[in-house]
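hey so i finally got around to running the thing on that chain from the lab meeting. sorry it took forever, my laptop kept dying and i had to restart like 3 times. anyway pasting the input first so we r on the same page abt which one it is
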Amino acid sequence: MLWQPNGGAPILAYRRVVMNGKGGQPVVVVINNGNSPVDLSTLNGGGIPLLGTFSGSALTEITGRTSTLAMAGGKLTGTVPARSAFIVTAPAGSGVGNTVNASLAEVSGLAARAGDSAVQLSWTAPADVNVTGYRIYAQSGTGQERLLNFAPLAKDQTTFLASGITNDLLTTFRVVTVDAQGAESRGSTVTATASSRNTATVTFTVDARSQGNGPVELRRFDTGQQVEYPMTQQGRGIWKTSIELPLFREIKFKFGNDSAAAKNSGYEGPGQADRSFVVETGAAYTGTYDFITQPVPPTIEGTVSASTAPVGNAVVEAITANPALNYALTFPDGSYTLFAPAGTVTLRATATGYPAAERQAVSPSTGVDIQLTPVVTAPTPTPPAGMKYTVDGNLNDWTAPKVTAQSPNEGTFGATTTG
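ok and heres what got predicted. didnt touch it at all, straight out
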């Protein structure tokens, strides 16, 4: 078991248990990788779920000392100090000895839908009040049956996505019900064969108005190398593409801007994790460029121009916010849409051939126009009449023959000079 609740508290836990009477007492390792103590009872669910792992509530460390951690209601509780690890053990409970409670009701309507290296299971929950959850087992071909989840699923959960299933091999899935002591029913079974031929078409849409005319693309990272999918602009800054992908596969990706004027090397969401999406039939994905884990703020809109001419591919940054995140590229007509935190911000517009210009704006707002002034280049002076050369670094007007200086003796000048 590897457990970190919702990616929140810095707790890592794993378990070694007895199977079929082999392996000795169960051992549970709990690591706190944070800088503050963690009370396990404050975690989502009230502790680390270990229903049926140990026969009692008292635990000992592997050194033989009594542990400050304990079992309560099928969950591991207690406080783990900062930057520390606890390794605890106790006699095995009924849940790890494959104890069968033959009186437990089974699930009904068990069905399996095969994907690529994954199978989605679904069932109807029994009405038996003694059922507290479910465990899932899988056996691929003639291999050994393996447990997919030790911590029982909640009783009201009636679907499970089994990943890491071998393609092109018939796999038998067994769903068992579990009681409060961790004992299991005999289970209901269903078979399915995962295959790389199982795919689904997913439509991706991204609001990339901050990227001007792009071009925007989807960049996928879960294949071992970056795969790029071009997108089509459906309206001002709205880009879309439809891709056939492996069914039930979790894909990792980001949107990117392939323009030479793009910021952040053309990748969205600096400092943010990749986007993640599990492929399902008929599914669609929508997002806002640059805002993956960061909340999407309101917008400031306006135009950048020089005199009356629009300036395309200008960069407008909210320099009092986060310029790497809160910025926009202008469209060819000079218009821009910049996502910025609510409130007053200072904007700075830059473009090739123009000095930077700044102004304040309130987010959200429209009509926030910025004027750029072209750089004035001083004209090349005309030399006075009769002047043969102009000292300006340009040697193209030099027409006289080159002058050479030679000496018959090394390092001695004055004997003969020719020109």
